[in-house]
TrEMBL record:
It comes from the Eukaryota. Signal peptide: none annotated. It comes from Paramecium sonneborni. Residues 1-189 form the AMMECR1 domain. Coiled coil: none annotated. InterPro entries: AMMECR1 (IPR023473), AMMECR1_domain (IPR002733), AmmeMemoSam_A (IPR027623). This is AMMECR1 domain-containing protein. Pfam families: AMMECR1 (PF01871).
Length: 190
């Protein structure tokens, strides 16, 4: 087993956290190997509709990261009301471990569908920065240029994006992902 690999057992632990929170019970101890890693936890309903997604780029112990970001994603994502017990049957949870960070890349030294990107640049005495996870550009069917145009706008820069391309300090990263439906979770718990 590769150490920085997302596994179904990580997703199962997210459901453990969710259930413990909903039922106001203690969280069970994790049964997986610990390592420090940045994490995103994502909930969907009906296998496609986003229901919550929060994470961090700061590495920390995996079980603590999963506990914190499961809770935040399920109950504190400001785009959605808190998850309720009645939704469990339609839920799936995804765990994304952020791995293979590579700093110091040029704006076009990355691959759509493989890399997440973080951009930082300065213009007019102001600092700008933003990120897209690896799946964003592929899901939107954007090429490298279109992705940078959207990401530069996300960072808050409103002028012609081509003016700052050569000023961008780009970091690439990849995700190791696992996903589990609530039904699969119940099968694992038998």
């Amino acid at each position: 087993m590769q150490i920085n690999q997302a596994l179904p057992i990580h997703c199962a632990y997210c459901f453990d956290i969710l259930l413990a929170s909903l039922q106001k019970k203690d969280v069970p101890k994790p049964t997986f190997q610990e390592f420090d890693v940045p994490v995103f936890v994502t909930f969907h309903t009906n296998k496609e509709d986003l229901r919550g997604c929060i994470g961090t780029f700061s590495p920390g112990p995996l079980s603590q990261q999963l506990a914190k970001y499961t809770y935040l994603s399920a109950f504190k994502d400001s785009r959605f009301p808190p998850i309720q017990m009645k939704e469990l049957d339609s839920l799936d949870v995804g765990v994304s471990l952020l791995v293979n960070f590579q700093k110091g890349k040029k704006w076009n030294q990355w691959e759509v569908g493989k890399h997440g990107i973080i951009i930082d640049f300065q213009e007019g005495g102001r600092e700008y920065g933003a990120t897209f996870l690896p799946e964003v550009a592929a899901e939107q069917e954007w090429d490298v240029n279109t992705t940078l145009e959207h990401l530069i706008a996300k960072a808050g820069y409103r002028k012609n994006y081509q003016n700052v391309l050569d000023k961008i300090d780009l970091t690439t990263y990849e995700t190791s992902k696992a996903k589990l439906t609530y039904a699969e979770y119940l099968e694992l718990k038998k």
